[in-house]
Design a protein that fits this description.
28% helix, 334 residues, 10-stranded mixed sheet, alpha+beta, globular, 3-stranded antiparallel sheet
Protein backbone atom coordinates (compact mmCIF):
# COMPACT_ATOMS: atom_id res chain seq x y z
CA UNK A 1 0.00 0.00 0.00
CA UNK A 2 1.46 3.32 -1.08
CA UNK A 3 0.58 5.46 1.94
CA UNK A 4 2.71 8.39 3.14
CA UNK A 5 4.79 8.13 6.29
CA UNK A 6 4.70 10.57 9.19
CA UNK A 7 8.23 11.97 9.08
CA UNK A 8 11.14 10.30 7.35
CA UNK A 9 10.71 6.92 5.60
CA UNK A 10 11.45 3.85 7.74
CA UNK A 11 15.14 3.34 8.47
CA UNK A 12 15.00 -0.45 8.43
CA UNK A 13 14.02 -3.42 6.34
CA UNK A 14 13.24 -6.80 7.83
CA UNK A 15 11.06 -9.89 7.83
CA UNK A 16 7.82 -10.08 9.84
CA UNK A 17 6.11 -13.33 10.88
CA UNK A 18 8.94 -15.61 9.79
CA UNK A 19 7.41 -17.96 12.39
CA UNK A 20 4.06 -17.66 14.22
CA UNK A 21 5.96 -17.18 17.50
CA UNK A 22 7.39 -13.93 16.11
CA UNK A 23 3.91 -12.35 16.25
CA UNK A 24 2.24 -12.96 19.62
CA UNK A 25 -1.05 -11.26 20.50
CA UNK A 26 -2.84 -11.23 23.86
CA UNK A 27 -6.37 -9.89 23.84
CA UNK A 28 -7.19 -7.26 26.48
CA UNK A 29 -10.75 -7.52 27.77
CA UNK A 30 -12.26 -5.15 30.37
CA UNK A 31 -13.79 -8.09 32.22
CA UNK A 32 -13.28 -11.78 32.90
CA UNK A 33 -15.50 -14.81 33.48
CA UNK A 34 -17.95 -14.32 36.34
CA UNK A 35 -18.38 -18.01 37.16
CA UNK A 36 -22.15 -18.18 36.61
CA UNK A 37 -24.66 -18.31 33.76
CA UNK A 38 -25.26 -20.44 30.68
CA UNK A 39 -22.12 -19.69 28.65
CA UNK A 40 -18.80 -21.50 28.74
CA UNK A 41 -15.90 -19.04 28.71
CA UNK A 42 -12.93 -20.47 26.85
CA UNK A 43 -9.47 -18.91 26.90
CA UNK A 44 -7.81 -20.26 23.78
CA UNK A 45 -4.32 -20.07 22.30
CA UNK A 46 -4.35 -20.45 18.54
CA UNK A 47 -1.41 -20.79 16.17
CA UNK A 48 -1.89 -20.21 12.45
CA UNK A 49 -5.68 -20.38 12.80
CA UNK A 50 -8.37 -17.96 11.58
CA UNK A 51 -10.65 -16.60 14.35
CA UNK A 52 -13.96 -16.96 12.49
CA UNK A 53 -13.04 -20.49 11.37
CA UNK A 54 -12.21 -21.44 14.94
CA UNK A 55 -15.56 -20.07 16.15
CA UNK A 56 -17.23 -22.38 13.67
CA UNK A 57 -15.22 -25.36 14.91
CA UNK A 58 -16.17 -24.59 18.52
CA UNK A 59 -19.83 -24.44 17.53
CA UNK A 60 -19.55 -27.77 15.72
CA UNK A 61 -17.88 -29.45 18.70
CA UNK A 62 -20.56 -28.10 21.05
CA UNK A 63 -23.43 -28.98 18.70
CA UNK A 64 -24.73 -25.39 18.57
CA UNK A 65 -25.27 -22.78 15.88
CA UNK A 66 -22.40 -20.38 15.21
CA UNK A 67 -24.49 -17.51 16.56
CA UNK A 68 -24.13 -19.12 20.01
CA UNK A 69 -20.35 -18.49 19.91
CA UNK A 70 -19.07 -15.08 20.95
CA UNK A 71 -15.70 -13.39 20.59
CA UNK A 72 -14.54 -9.78 20.74
CA UNK A 73 -12.57 -9.49 17.50
CA UNK A 74 -10.75 -11.22 14.68
CA UNK A 75 -7.03 -11.77 15.23
CA UNK A 76 -4.15 -12.38 12.86
CA UNK A 77 -4.06 -15.89 11.48
CA UNK A 78 -0.29 -15.81 10.99
CA UNK A 79 0.74 -15.62 14.60
CA UNK A 80 0.10 -16.92 18.09
CA UNK A 81 -2.99 -15.41 19.67
CA UNK A 82 -4.55 -15.81 23.08
CA UNK A 83 -8.19 -14.72 23.14
CA UNK A 84 -11.51 -15.55 24.80
CA UNK A 85 -14.61 -17.17 23.29
CA UNK A 86 -17.99 -17.88 24.86
CA UNK A 87 -20.29 -20.75 23.86
CA UNK A 88 -23.92 -20.67 24.98
CA UNK A 89 -24.86 -24.00 26.56
CA UNK A 90 -28.03 -23.54 28.64
CA UNK A 91 -28.56 -26.45 31.03
CA UNK A 92 -25.58 -28.36 29.60
CA UNK A 93 -22.09 -29.27 30.67
CA UNK A 94 -19.49 -30.12 28.06
CA UNK A 95 -16.17 -31.89 28.46
CA UNK A 96 -13.92 -29.45 26.61
CA UNK A 97 -10.87 -31.58 27.37
CA UNK A 98 -11.91 -33.71 24.39
CA UNK A 99 -11.54 -30.78 21.98
CA UNK A 100 -8.91 -31.56 19.33
CA UNK A 101 -8.13 -28.87 16.74
CA UNK A 102 -4.73 -28.54 15.09
CA UNK A 103 -3.04 -25.31 16.15
CA UNK A 104 -5.44 -24.74 19.07
CA UNK A 105 -4.74 -25.13 22.78
CA UNK A 106 -7.43 -24.67 25.43
CA UNK A 107 -5.98 -22.73 28.38
CA UNK A 108 -9.00 -22.16 30.61
CA UNK A 109 -12.71 -23.03 30.89
CA UNK A 110 -15.08 -21.22 33.22
CA UNK A 111 -18.75 -20.34 33.32
CA UNK A 112 -19.97 -16.88 32.29
CA UNK A 113 -23.32 -15.12 32.27
CA UNK A 114 -23.13 -13.34 28.90
CA UNK A 115 -21.97 -13.78 25.34
CA UNK A 116 -18.79 -11.90 24.46
CA UNK A 117 -19.85 -9.20 22.01
CA UNK A 118 -17.88 -8.08 18.98
CA UNK A 119 -15.88 -4.95 19.68
CA UNK A 120 -15.99 -5.35 23.47
CA UNK A 121 -12.22 -5.68 23.92
CA UNK A 122 -10.07 -2.80 25.15
CA UNK A 123 -7.29 -3.68 22.74
CA UNK A 124 -4.41 -6.10 22.28
CA UNK A 125 -0.89 -6.55 23.62
CA UNK A 126 1.80 -7.51 21.12
CA UNK A 127 5.20 -9.19 21.36
CA UNK A 128 6.75 -8.99 17.89
CA UNK A 129 10.12 -9.96 16.44
CA UNK A 130 11.36 -8.62 13.11
CA UNK A 131 14.15 -10.75 11.64
CA UNK A 132 16.97 -10.05 9.15
CA UNK A 133 17.05 -6.38 10.14
CA UNK A 134 19.10 -4.12 7.88
CA UNK A 135 19.49 -0.36 7.87
CA UNK A 136 20.52 2.52 10.12
CA UNK A 137 19.94 1.44 13.73
CA UNK A 138 20.66 4.91 15.11
CA UNK A 139 17.96 6.48 12.92
CA UNK A 140 15.61 3.65 13.81
CA UNK A 141 16.15 4.34 17.51
CA UNK A 142 15.05 7.95 16.92
CA UNK A 143 12.01 6.82 14.94
CA UNK A 144 11.02 4.42 17.71
CA UNK A 145 11.37 7.20 20.29
CA UNK A 146 9.15 9.40 18.12
CA UNK A 147 6.57 6.60 17.93
CA UNK A 148 6.53 6.29 21.71
CA UNK A 149 5.97 10.03 22.06
CA UNK A 150 3.85 10.96 19.04
CA UNK A 151 2.15 7.76 17.93
CA UNK A 152 1.55 6.71 14.32
CA UNK A 153 -1.02 7.35 11.59
CA UNK A 154 -3.88 4.97 12.35
CA UNK A 155 -4.02 3.40 8.89
CA UNK A 156 -5.97 0.30 8.03
CA UNK A 157 -3.29 -2.04 6.67
CA UNK A 158 -3.25 -4.81 4.07
CA UNK A 159 -5.07 -7.47 6.06
CA UNK A 160 -8.19 -5.27 6.09
CA UNK A 161 -8.46 -5.43 2.32
CA UNK A 162 -7.83 -9.13 1.74
CA UNK A 163 -5.38 -10.85 -0.58
CA UNK A 164 -4.72 -8.61 -3.60
CA UNK A 165 -7.49 -6.27 -2.42
CA UNK A 166 -10.19 -8.94 -2.76
CA UNK A 167 -12.46 -7.31 -0.19
CA UNK A 168 -12.52 -4.03 -2.11
CA UNK A 169 -13.35 -5.92 -5.30
CA UNK A 170 -16.22 -7.60 -3.46
CA UNK A 171 -17.46 -4.20 -2.26
CA UNK A 172 -17.66 -2.91 -5.81
CA UNK A 173 -19.40 -6.11 -6.89
CA UNK A 174 -21.87 -5.73 -4.01
CA UNK A 175 -22.64 -2.14 -4.98
CA UNK A 176 -23.18 -3.31 -8.56
CA UNK A 177 -25.88 -5.72 -7.39
CA UNK A 178 -24.05 -8.95 -6.59
CA UNK A 179 -25.32 -10.92 -3.60
CA UNK A 180 -22.78 -11.82 -0.92
CA UNK A 181 -23.09 -13.99 2.14
CA UNK A 182 -23.14 -12.30 5.53
CA UNK A 183 -19.42 -12.56 6.25
CA UNK A 184 -18.34 -11.49 2.76
CA UNK A 185 -20.72 -8.53 2.86
CA UNK A 186 -19.35 -7.41 6.23
CA UNK A 187 -15.73 -7.62 5.03
CA UNK A 188 -16.61 -5.81 1.80
CA UNK A 189 -18.35 -2.90 3.53
CA UNK A 190 -15.51 -2.58 6.05
CA UNK A 191 -12.93 -2.53 3.26
CA UNK A 192 -14.82 0.20 1.39
CA UNK A 193 -14.98 2.37 4.49
CA UNK A 194 -11.33 1.68 5.26
CA UNK A 195 -10.15 2.74 1.79
CA UNK A 196 -11.91 6.10 2.14
CA UNK A 197 -10.53 6.60 5.64
CA UNK A 198 -6.98 5.84 4.47
CA UNK A 199 -7.27 8.35 1.63
CA UNK A 200 -8.32 11.09 4.05
CA UNK A 201 -5.65 10.16 6.60
CA UNK A 202 -2.98 10.16 3.88
CA UNK A 203 -3.95 13.75 3.00
CA UNK A 204 -3.74 14.76 6.66
CA UNK A 205 -0.30 13.13 6.94
CA UNK A 206 0.89 15.08 3.89
CA UNK A 207 -0.36 18.41 5.26
CA UNK A 208 1.02 17.63 8.73
CA UNK A 209 -2.28 17.70 10.67
CA UNK A 210 -2.79 13.97 11.30
CA UNK A 211 -1.96 14.45 14.99
CA UNK A 212 -3.38 17.96 15.45
CA UNK A 213 -6.81 19.41 16.21
CA UNK A 214 -7.68 22.03 13.56
CA UNK A 215 -10.72 24.34 13.38
CA UNK A 216 -13.88 22.46 12.47
CA UNK A 217 -12.40 19.17 13.64
CA UNK A 218 -14.46 16.26 14.87
CA UNK A 219 -12.32 15.17 17.81
CA UNK A 220 -12.41 11.79 19.56
CA UNK A 221 -11.70 10.99 23.18
CA UNK A 222 -8.77 8.64 23.72
CA UNK A 223 -9.75 4.97 24.17
CA UNK A 224 -13.32 5.84 23.22
CA UNK A 225 -15.59 5.97 20.19
CA UNK A 226 -17.17 9.22 21.42
CA UNK A 227 -16.49 12.25 19.20
CA UNK A 228 -17.48 15.90 19.30
CA UNK A 229 -17.28 18.95 17.05
CA UNK A 230 -14.76 21.72 17.64
CA UNK A 231 -15.87 25.10 16.31
CA UNK A 232 -12.96 27.34 17.18
CA UNK A 233 -9.16 27.24 17.35
CA UNK A 234 -9.10 26.30 21.02
CA UNK A 235 -5.66 26.27 22.67
CA UNK A 236 -6.96 23.98 25.43
CA UNK A 237 -8.01 21.38 22.83
CA UNK A 238 -4.58 21.58 21.19
CA UNK A 239 -2.96 20.95 24.56
CA UNK A 240 -5.24 17.98 25.24
CA UNK A 241 -4.35 16.56 21.83
CA UNK A 242 -0.63 16.98 22.53
CA UNK A 243 -1.11 15.03 25.78
CA UNK A 244 -2.92 12.22 23.91
CA UNK A 245 -6.28 12.82 25.61
CA UNK A 246 -8.10 13.51 22.33
CA UNK A 247 -7.38 12.79 18.67
CA UNK A 248 -8.38 14.19 15.27
CA UNK A 249 -10.64 11.89 13.28
CA UNK A 250 -11.40 10.70 9.77
CA UNK A 251 -14.59 9.30 8.22
CA UNK A 252 -16.07 5.84 8.39
CA UNK A 253 -18.44 6.66 5.55
CA UNK A 254 -22.17 6.29 5.94
CA UNK A 255 -25.54 7.67 4.97
CA UNK A 256 -25.19 11.24 6.25
CA UNK A 257 -22.45 13.88 5.91
CA UNK A 258 -20.40 14.51 9.04
CA UNK A 259 -20.76 18.01 10.59
CA UNK A 260 -17.23 19.12 9.69
CA UNK A 261 -15.93 22.63 9.33
CA UNK A 262 -15.79 23.88 5.74
CA UNK A 263 -12.03 23.46 5.25
CA UNK A 264 -11.95 19.90 6.54
CA UNK A 265 -15.09 18.95 4.64
CA UNK A 266 -13.38 20.10 1.46
CA UNK A 267 -10.18 18.22 2.30
CA UNK A 268 -12.08 14.98 2.96
CA UNK A 269 -14.07 15.34 -0.24
CA UNK A 270 -11.06 16.10 -2.44
CA UNK A 271 -8.73 13.51 -0.95
CA UNK A 272 -11.26 10.69 -1.44
CA UNK A 273 -12.78 11.80 -4.74
CA UNK A 274 -11.33 8.83 -6.63
CA UNK A 275 -13.39 6.61 -4.32
CA UNK A 276 -16.74 8.31 -4.96
CA UNK A 277 -18.16 5.00 -6.23
CA UNK A 278 -17.51 3.49 -2.81
CA UNK A 279 -19.09 6.48 -1.08
CA UNK A 280 -22.26 6.18 -3.15
CA UNK A 281 -22.45 2.46 -2.47
CA UNK A 282 -22.05 2.93 1.27
CA UNK A 283 -24.68 5.67 1.30
CA UNK A 284 -27.16 3.31 -0.39
CA UNK A 285 -26.39 0.67 2.24
CA UNK A 286 -27.49 3.25 4.85
CA UNK A 287 -24.68 2.55 7.28
CA UNK A 288 -24.43 5.01 10.16
CA UNK A 289 -21.79 7.68 9.60
CA UNK A 290 -19.14 7.52 12.28
CA UNK A 291 -15.50 8.48 12.86
CA UNK A 292 -12.14 6.86 13.65
CA UNK A 293 -9.07 8.42 15.28
CA UNK A 294 -6.40 9.48 12.78
CA UNK A 295 -3.68 8.76 15.33
CA UNK A 296 -2.90 5.66 17.36
CA UNK A 297 -0.77 5.77 20.49
CA UNK A 298 1.00 2.64 21.68
CA UNK A 299 1.03 1.94 25.41
CA UNK A 300 4.19 0.67 27.10
CA UNK A 301 6.21 0.63 23.88
CA UNK A 302 9.64 -0.94 24.39
CA UNK A 303 12.22 -2.33 21.98
CA UNK A 304 15.60 -3.98 21.75
CA UNK A 305 18.00 -5.11 19.03
CA UNK A 306 19.99 -8.32 19.03
CA UNK A 307 21.51 -10.69 16.48
CA UNK A 308 19.93 -8.95 13.52
CA UNK A 309 16.46 -8.83 15.08
CA UNK A 310 14.22 -6.07 16.42
CA UNK A 311 12.04 -7.02 19.41
CA UNK A 312 8.94 -4.89 20.01
CA UNK A 313 6.47 -4.95 22.90
CA UNK A 314 3.44 -2.66 23.11
CA UNK A 315 -0.34 -2.48 23.50
CA UNK A 316 -2.80 -0.89 21.08
CA UNK A 317 -6.46 0.06 21.46
CA UNK A 318 -9.13 -2.05 19.78
CA UNK A 319 -9.28 -1.66 16.01
CA UNK A 320 -5.69 -0.48 15.59
CA UNK A 321 -3.16 -2.46 13.56
CA UNK A 322 0.31 -3.36 14.81
CA UNK A 323 1.57 -3.15 11.23
CA UNK A 324 0.53 0.53 11.08
CA UNK A 325 3.04 1.15 13.87
CA UNK A 326 5.76 -1.11 12.48
CA UNK A 327 5.67 0.47 9.00
CA UNK A 328 6.92 3.79 10.45
CA UNK A 329 10.22 2.14 11.36
CA UNK A 330 10.65 -0.93 9.18
CA UNK A 331 9.64 -1.96 5.66
CA UNK A 332 8.63 -5.47 6.64
CA UNK A 333 8.50 -8.39 4.24
CA UNK A 334 5.79 -10.87 5.14
Amino acid sequence: MNLPFAGEPPALTGVLKSTPEDFVVDELLPYGPDGTGEHDWLMVEKRGVNTAWLAGQLARFAGVREVAVGYAGSKDRQGVTRQAFTVQLPGRKLDWSELRIDGVRLLEVQRHSRKIQRGSNDGNRFAIVLREIKGDIDVAQKQLSALALRGAPNYFTEQRFGIDGANLARARALFAGRRLDRNQRSFALSAARSAIFNAVLAARVVDGTWDQIVPGELAMLDKSRAWFKTDIDDVALADRCARGEIHPTGPLWGDKPAPLGERLAQLEDESSRELDDLKRGLEKERLDTTRRALRVLASDLSWSFDAGALHLNFALPAGAYATALIRQVCRAEL
